[in-house]
Amino acid sequence: MPKQKTHSGAKKRFRVTRNGKVMSRQKNRAHLLGHKSSRRKRRLAGEREIAPPDAKKIKKLLNQ
After folding, report:
1. CA angle 5, 63, 45 (to 5 degrees)
2. For residue 17, what are the contacts with CB-CB under 8 A and spacing of at least 6?
3. Is the dihedral of CA 32, 38, 40, 42 positive or negative?
4. Global pTM value
5. What domains sit in the chain, N to C, each tagged with a CATH number?
6. Taking CA atoms, which of 18, 43, 50, 62 is between 20 and 30 Å from 36?
């Protein structure tokens, strides 16, 4: 049986931590940043943890 391939779109958008949490970038930080406040942009700077039901699906795409 051939190996499972990792989903290319998922591997660009998500990462799995050592503890098994699925992390991704926050939305609203890609473009049209001129009218957004600095405070809002700073708040969106980090990564967020994906909700457990969604994380289960994403891990399947990433062969975890």
Report:
1. 105
2. 23
3. positive
4. 0.83
5. 8-61 (4.10.410.60)
6. 50
